[in-house]
Amino acid sequence: MPGAARRTLSLVGGILAGAALVLPGSVATADTRPFIIGGHDATEQYSFMVSLQQGGQHGCGGSLIRPDWVVTAAHCVGAPDGMTARIGSTDRTGGGSEAKVTQAIVHPDYNGGAGPGGDIALLKLDHAVEQKPIAIAPDPGAAGTATRIIGWGMTCDDEQQCPELPVTLQELDTELVDDARCTNFDGGTELCTDSDTPDAMGCFGDSGGPQVVGRPGEWQLIGATSRDGDDDPKCATGPGIWTDVTAYTDWIDQQIGG
């Protein structure tokens, strides 16, 4: 995210549009856990999980919401030329289905990271895949709602200590928290999120990935990973911000059909 107040959580510059690659400069402590940060290997297959890639290199996450449509963060999206998607695998290097991205639709409210809101985009795949899409929840729930975040982002706050993204998908149980916990935040279209796990949160490379509610086999989508939620340069301290996908349901239906 451009500037300390809007550190977006994508990693590969080749699929970014209007969002500078800003990596945290702080040094992780010796007890930093080597996971999403603070999460663990995925405990199940998520048929809807998407790795967006350029040249086989993971850049952002996404969620399959139709057999040939993916929702992600707007700051992940540039020209679709060369962008591919791996769908439904916990291994970002293999398995699941692969498809090319042929079209990108960025929400008109997205302002390139200059302010909150509008950080959502739709990607059209070149063919329908066999994996089961995830349904969008009717609403995200109130503060205190249990959620889960999923992604292949950085596993510590210092890229020198964890230069390689995890191959295995990571997950972290989280919860929605009061809007006032997040800074530079739009309560109407975004979700302020934290975790009971100490020093745990999404980080660079998790952008666009899903925040879900429910239980195994019955997950519903509420969010797409957007950015850090406070002024601390470390990903793992404080809350994070997710775009409230449920707030954009009408727009999504207008673009790709209900």
From TrEMBL:
One GO MF term: peptidase activity
GO biological process: proteolysis
Family recorded in the similarity comment: Belongs to the peptidase S1 family.
Stored Pfam families: Trypsin
Top-level taxon: Bacteria
Organism: Saccharopolyspora erythraea
Protein name per its UniProtKB record: Serine protease
UniProt keyword annotation of Transmembrane helix present: no
Domain Peptidase S1: 36-257
Keyword rRNA-binding: no
PANTHER family, per the entry: FI18310P1-RELATED (PTHR24276:SF98), POLYSERASE-RELATED (PTHR24276)
SMART domains, per the entry: Tryp_SPc (SM00020)
Keywords in alphabetical order: Disulfide bond, Hydrolase, Protease
